[in-house]
Amino acid sequence: MKSVGIIGTAKNTGKTTTLSALLRSLKNRKIAVTGIGYDGEEIDNITMLPKPRLYFEKGIIVATAAKCILNAEVDYKILKKTSIPTPLGNVFLVEITKPGLVVIAGPNRVSHLKELMKLIAGLGIDLLLVDGSLNRISPMYLLDELIFTTGGSKNTDIKILTDEMVTVEKIFSLPSAAISPDSVSSISFVSGSDFIPCDLATFIDDDDLGILKKCIPDRCEKIIIPLFFSEYALTGLVQFLKSRGSSVAVNEIVLLSPVHLLLSSDFLRLDSLLRLLSNSGIKFSYVFTPRLKAITINPFFPKLYNYHFVAGYLDKDEFLKSMKGKLSIDVFNVKERFDFDF
């Protein structure tokens, strides 16, 4: 079973529209859909503008919270009532028997998404689509591929939007580490064939950085950081290793995934970190390496007019040209018909 996540970088950047386009173009596949947390509102709670909802055809498997499915505008057959919790009740696995609209509310935790993916794979599903956003992206490093959506709602400056996606592409282009996921559970140092643990539960601030510096053993080639961290602490570590030059053998910092790097700071600071890294002789690598599949753009943005919001639009041709000129992956405008190849 292939798993693909759709990640909105902000509200109204076209995540739901992208997911709807995927559902339309993959009608002949055995598909399941879930989400990280809650989505599916009809009206944007801030701008009060209408939002697209998810429409499911007959035969699609949906994993959503009990209250969502019991109040859905579809007919369905319950396949399994799981013990996976959400604020809206446990997740139900259902098959759509009559098309209609459904609100998606799925698991928030990594362990719960793992459990749900195992259950869905057991149903003979070809493709799992997972709805998410940048502030609830953390479990999505488990997926095979990710699609990011961006648009005027995040920023009305096309250059800034393009630069942000260039940073995302750089982050996802970093290599896979030659380390088994089962072999890392805490911050560790690799010296030859030895894994030396560090008694450090977080890597966030100056105190954590100071402890880690003191723990680095002689002849250490790699530092493994398999947990959430701050860009501030990571930048401090790279600067420290760079300042030590040839006196330190460390040439690789292993992170759990590109998702963890994305969550450590904003796009501007992450771009600065990558620039520092490129001049340091040190590389980042990942234990989990979901592939960046595509970027979708949405020219729409909520424009304030006479004390209320109306629909505004960026220049769609300029927006698409800017993105395609800087990115090597596929870029699609969600306001125009497009098809993904899976």
Structural commentary:
By secondary structure, the chain is of the alpha/beta class. The chain folds into two domains: 2-173 and 290-333, Rossmann fold; 181-286, no CATH class. The protein has helices at residues 15-25, 66-70, 110-121, 158-173, 206-215, 231-244, 258-262, 267-278, 316-326, and strands at 2-8, 31-35, 38-39, 55-56, 61-65, 73-81, 91-101, 104-105, 127-133, 145-151, 188-191, 194-197, 222-225, 252-255, 283-286, 291-298, 300-305, 308-313, 330-333. The strands form four sheets. Strands 1, 2, 4, 5, 6, 7, 9, 10, 16 and 19 form a ten-stranded mixed sheet that branches. Helix 6 links the parallel strand 13 and strand 14 (252-255).
Task: Compose a concise summary of this entry.
This protein is of the alpha/beta class. The chain has helices at 15-25, 66-70, 110-121, 158-173, 206-215, 231-244, 258-262, 267-278, 316-326; strands spanning 2-8, 31-35, 38-39, 55-56, 61-65, 73-81, 91-101, 104-105, 127-133, 145-151, 188-191, 194-197, 222-225, 252-255, 283-286, 291-298, 300-305, 308-313, 330-333.
